[in-house]
Amino acid sequence: MTASSASAAPAPTSGAPAPTPAAPTVDDRAHPVRPRVTELRLSAFAGHRRTVVPFGPLTLLAGPSGCGKTSALRAYEALARLGGGAALAAVFPDPPACVPERARPDAQHRRGFRLGCTTDGPAGPVRLDLAVQAEPELRIVGERLTARGLVLLETALRDPGRRSVQAAWHTAGTAPVTRAPLPDDRLGTALLPLRVAGKTDGQRLVLAAAEQTVVALRSAFACDPRPGRMRAAAPVGSGRLLGGCDNLADVLWRTRAECGRRHALLVAAVRAGCAGPVEDVLAELGGGGTVRAMLDRGDGPHTGLDRLGYGELRYLALALVLLTGPGVLEVDAPGEVPAALRTLTVLADGFDRGLDPCQRTALLELAARMCARGHIRLVGTVSDASWAAGAAGATVVHLEP
């Protein structure tokens, strides 16, 4: 698959970083910028080869079935989970499915895939490239982190018999690089804050780039509402919204009491996307420790979500996602970073699935307003983005088979 604006992206290579002069320091006096992912590179991943996907605050991936929209979102989610410290096997439960279909094994019967991303923030543009061996064993065989023209981290598999890779990171001190083994089932970039002392300018640049990458990646929420499960009563739980929005009623029970202003915005959004009058969106406790969501029509009995259509339920769930944040969504947010310095990225597969023209326009307008504020970004997939052409604040990326 290719994106209309794609360009080739180099894959990680082996070897240690070359000695370099002292690196420029990070300017802490600059106005803080929220770390964010600005580009996804799928050099060889599933059906993608040399695909580069640029991201704006609000991005729609468009194209026919089979062009790789969903696999692009899955690649983003995989990087996000690796950035959060997840093990490789948990992130890629079916690694052969990530290998390009016609990829041939080498003499040692090895096959794999390559992906990466670029983040931007206080450290400036930072590139992360990753090479993963899928067969015969799942392992990271190459990782490269670069910024400001410098290779800050590079790993390579030296001994296939060891469950580790040889890593070298930029120091620019008495020794130009530091070498040490890292596990081959974890993202090395996420481990750097535990390994780098931060005593030299070079080490501080490495830490700044690694932390920016991890913060940008971890702040992601994959969302694909399942109306069939939203119609039933939900058990009272944590009040954290799941990716399938099955527990939407439990979340409404929490958020309605927490912030009246946000709830009023949700009611206004639901009013624009649901048939009939809507005075309020309620959640009421039922028997057996469950809670049920319903609409107040303003004329007596309430309407349960089980009576709403498929598109109405997806619209309601996505509106709720856009109007909440990491404290409500089931996302691994970096707690050590102040909320004012984080940007949550919502990954919405089938953003317009089941929506009528009025619903998808209203939802896009809501997304554009929320994304313009800077605290939330959206990457959604659509089969046809002609309806979104010219929408303020929206970036449409066309993927081709």
Attribute tags:
single chain, 401 residues, alpha+beta, Rossmann fold, 2 domains, eight-stranded antiparallel β-sheet
Briefly say what this structure is.
This protein has 401 residues and is α+β, with helices and mostly antiparallel strands. The chain contains 9 helices and 18 strands.
Itemize the secondary structure elements and their pairings:
Blueprint lengths: L1 E2 L32 E10 L2 E7 L3 E5 L6 H15 L4 H4 L19 E10 L5 E10 L3 E9 L2 E7 L7 E7 L6 E7 L4 H8 L5 H18 L1 E4 L3 H4 L3 E2 L12 H11 L1 H14 L6 E6 L4 E7 L6 E2 L5 H13 L21 E5 L8 H15 L4 E7 L11 E7 L1
Helix pairs in contact: 1-4, 3-4, 7-8, 8-9
Description:
Residues 1-17 have a biased composition (Low complexity). Keywords: ATP-binding, Nucleotide-binding. Residues 1-31 are annotated as: Disordered. The chain has 401 residues and is an alpha+beta fold. It has two domains: 2-219, no CATH class; 225-400, Rossmann fold, CATH 3.40.50.300. The protein is built from nine helices and 18 strands. Strand 5 (111-120) and strand 6 form a beta hairpin. Helix 8 packs parallel to helix 9 (357-371). The protein is elongated, with a radius of gyration of 23 Å.
